[in-house]
Amino acid sequence: MSKILFVMTGADHWTLADGTKHPTGFWAEEAVAPYEAFKAAGHEVVVATPGGVVPPVDQGSLAAEANGGQENADRIAAVLAAMTELRAAVRLEDVNLDDYAAVFYPGGHGPMEDLAVDADSGKLLTLALESGKPLGVVCHAPAALLAAAKGDGTNTFAGYRVAAFTNAEETQAGFADKAKWLLQDRLTEAGVQVQVGEPWVPNVVVDRNLVTGQNPASSAPLAVELLKKLG
């Protein structure tokens, strides 16, 4: 049994271009689907957040319409309620990568607020990538890649192929014209090669030890690919 580190947002809001604080957090399915897959495979999960705060769930991600109906929404909520790891989050600043076999970042708009500018997360991502350990990042969590830099100041992930929440999806979600910046654009500017798939359809990209997913529907297939790398 290996330990898998979940690096999660500690932000319960996303500051929009006009200064409005939009309530958010992590997206439920993106934490639950991989969590269930990793636990079923016999692995232990440890949650880390900036400051060790309990990661806030985006309430919108618990709605029936976000989960294909009320029955699945109730199931997702029940799994979250039983995830004791969420309430025992360790401080991201104190994490030792050597303790973990793999690292996974679930999304939601929360990472756009905190992990996108979190130096400790950026250092961890750089170490994880260089270590060759499986590293999974899904949906809006690739915002965290923006804080990862090499010694020469270039982005650690420049030249890597990734999937991430697209401009088209942000537009359809109703936020593209309200956001300070768009994830696909910022990653591209950093030299990361965003592989754009159809909106809301699973799209998982594997480049060396990095496994990324475009949207909530990509979280379960991403977990499958990460488990393959764990052997």
From TrEMBL:
Keyword Transferase attributed: no
Gene Ontology biological process terms, A to Z: methylglyoxal catabolic process to D-lactate via S-lactoyl-glutathione
DJ-1/PfpI domain segment(s): 28-228
Gene3D superfamilies in alphabetical order: 3.40.50.880
Keywords in alphabetical order: Glutamine amidotransferase, Lyase, Stress response
Pfam families with a match to the protein in the record: DJ-1_PfpI
Keyword 4Fe-4S attributed: no
One MF term in the entry's GO annotations: glyoxalase III activity
InterPro entries, per database record: Class_I_gatase-like, DJ-1/PfpI, Prot/Nucl_acid_deglycase
GO CC aspect terms: cytoplasm
Record-linked PANTHER family: GLUTATHIONE-INDEPENDENT GLYOXALASE HSP31-RELATED (PTHR48094:SF11), PROTEIN/NUCLEIC ACID DEGLYCASE DJ-1-RELATED (PTHR48094)
Record family assignment: Belongs to the peptidase C56 family. HSP31-like subfamily.
Name of the protein this chain belongs to: Type 1 glutamine amidotransferase domain-containing protein
Species of the source: Streptomyces sp. R28
